[in-house]
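User: Hey, quick favor. My workstation is busy. Could you predict this chain's structure for me?
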Amino acid sequence: MSDESIAAKIERLVAEEHSLQQREEADHDAGQALDTDRDRLREVEVELDRCWDLLRQRRALREAGSDPDAAQVRDADTVERYLQ
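Assistant: No problem, here it is.
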C-alpha cells in the first residue's frame, strides 16, 4: 500500500468520522440509530489510528534508508494501547 493510498483512506475515514459525529449530535434522542452510529464511530477511530500508524512506519523506514513496503498494519489492540 502506497503512502498516497493510505492518505486517501485516511481522508475517507475522516470524512465518515465527521459525518457520524454530526449525526450523533443531531440524533441524540434516536436510541438504536445513535448506538449504531457510536459503534461505527469507534470502528472508524480505530481504523484511523491503524492507518496513521502504518503511515508513520513507512515514513520512518524511508528516513532510515529502508524499504517502506516492509511496514505492516498492526492489529487494533497494539495500536490502541500505545502510550502517548
